[in-house]
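Whiteboard transcription, Tuesday session. T.W. wrote the structure tokens on the left side:
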């Protein structure tokens, strides 16, 4: 990952550019020749924003730019919200945490969007995530900025998504079981996969991210 000072992000400022190597996948991949993607966490409590951490509802909005012809491969992750301790909100270890990252999936078309959900009470039959709303919207790869926005209501478990300001997902109660786990912040997580090289792009790809913002109300 690197700061891209040459790319004009919406509203000014710079963007974060992420590179995905040919055939890259998650860090757990044992047969991937090239690395790809990146991952880090923001922590609201460490930033002195306990008001946001304890909120009933939190809304995350950011801008995403994918180049024209972007190879979506078999699928991959994009940033979302998370709650609980770091390391307890994703595959195989989520008893005290939750997360609502996005995924792009290649089921009926290569660029289908979804929310990839982990909660203490629902992480799918394999323990590696629940697909919410697969194909309810499609990610656009045209070299222009697009906004993705999600709102999570911890009281009800409702998850709502907007793409370019248009509501594309309303998943009532999908994240039930998280009411007692405060918002921790943004789970910046993006990579192809899956856990093997078959998920990755056929050549090196790049994406840009900018304008991350959090609010207790809808932002568009």
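and on the right, the sequence the group agreed on:
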């Amino acid at each position: 990952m690197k700061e891209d000072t040459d790319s004009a992000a919406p509203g000014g400022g710079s963007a974060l550019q992420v590179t995905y190597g040919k055939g890259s996948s998650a860090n757990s991949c044992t047969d991937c020749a090239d690395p790809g993607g990146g991952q880090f966490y923001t922590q609201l409590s460490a930033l002195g924003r306990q008001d946001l951490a304890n909120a009933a509802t939190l809304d995350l909005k950011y801008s995403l730019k994918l180049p024209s012809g972007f190879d979506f491969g078999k699928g991959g992750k994009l940033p979302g919200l998370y709650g609980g301790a770091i390391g307890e909100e994703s595959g195989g270890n989520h008893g005290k945490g939750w997360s609502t990252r996005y995924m792009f999936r290649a089921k009926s078309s290569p660029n289908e969007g979804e929310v990839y959900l982990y909660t203490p009470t629902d992480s799918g039959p394999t323990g590696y995530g629940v697909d919410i709303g697969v194909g309810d919207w499609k990610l656009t790869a045209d070299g222009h900025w697009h906004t993705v926005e999600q709102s999570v209501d911890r009281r009800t478990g409702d998850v709502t998504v907007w793409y370019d300001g248009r509501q594309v997902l309303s998943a009532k109660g999908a994240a039930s079981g998280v009411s007692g786990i405060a918002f921790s912040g943004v789970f910046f997580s993006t990579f192809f996969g899956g856990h093997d090289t078959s998920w990755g792009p056929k050549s090196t790809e790049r994406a840009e991210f900018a304008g991350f913002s959090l609010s207790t109300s809808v932002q568009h």
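Someone added at the bottom: The longest strand covers residues 205-215.
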